Amino acid sequence: MSDNINFEISPRSFTRVLVAVDEDDSHSSIRAFNYAVTTAKRLNAPLGIVSILEVEDFNIFDTLSPEVMKQRRSQVTDDLARYVNKARSFGVKEIQAFTGEGKPADIIINDILPEFNPDLLVCGSKTKPVNERKKIFIGSQASAMAQNAPCSVIVVR
Amino acid sequence: MSDNINFEISPRSFTRVLVAVDEDDSHSSIRAFNYAVTTAKRLNAPLGIVSILEVEDFNIFDTLSPEVMKQRRSQVTDDLARYVNKARSFGVKEIQAFTGEGKPADIIINDILPEFNPDLLVCGSKTKPVNERKKIFIGSQASAMAQNAPCSVIVVR
Q1: Domains and CATH numbers, chain B
Q2: Which of A80, A94, A120, A126 is deepest in the core (most CB within 10 A)?
Q3: CB-based contacts of B31, cutoff 8 Å, min separation 6
Q4: Which residue of A has its CA nearest to B154?
Q5: Span B114-140, pLDDT tens digits
Q6: Do A151 and B138 touch (CB under 8 A)?
Q7: ipTM of this predicted complex?
Q8: Hey, what's the torsion of the CAs at B72, B157, A143, A141, to 10 degrees?
């Protein structure tokens, strides 16, 4: 027998929950969101909701068009407001919303986590092709967050 | 506003929990284990505990020595029995133990998940160098499970 597992069990829970919702994958986001609000309500924990505008998903013309950018930004903001309202109706008391632009995993890890300081990050697992060579990255952003975030990460499926 | 987030919140929980403990990283494993037993007890859910003998971690002489293999196998089995006893003492009622040999993510995804059929896989995040070129894979197995498992995955830190 090894002595290194000679420990007492300490019940383990979380105190601040951040959920990442994708602007372009509602199916995966809704699963993650359902789990996050259920958990935040049960633990009476503050809930952060973040939605990142995935700039690298755009083609070059879209990226350069101020009109398209404005429209996408507006949709992210509107969707986020609806998520916040849903969480509040469900019974979560303390809610903060965050937006950003770029690669979701990078922005969330570098900018949002230090600001909101959650001990649990909740995300869905996106399953669509994301680059022009048609290579399918299944949940690449979720996987990057699971690997690199300093806090616990749950990928909800 | 987008219509695709026009949904009702369904409270989301889990019914079968599998926790992966590393034979050679007790620190990371204990965090994951604490979370898994807390969750399984709260939900009155069956708990699976799996420990994989990481064969690729061995050098070629160790791999070829039946004595060393026997000793490592014996330690995995003993450690697993201790985890099972701890979970039982904590109040988890239904517990199953699993072992295997190879790359943890591959064995767990291909062999253990289909057998135990959890809807939540709990793992720690190992932070030591694992190959001979000294490249540090931080939580590479956890990340591989988060990306490729068909069920929800939580990486506990």
Answers
A1: 17-156 (3.40.50.620)
A2: A120
A3: A12, B124, B156, B157
A4: A154
A5: 999 999 999 998 765 545 544 445 578
A6: no
A7: 0.88
A8: -170
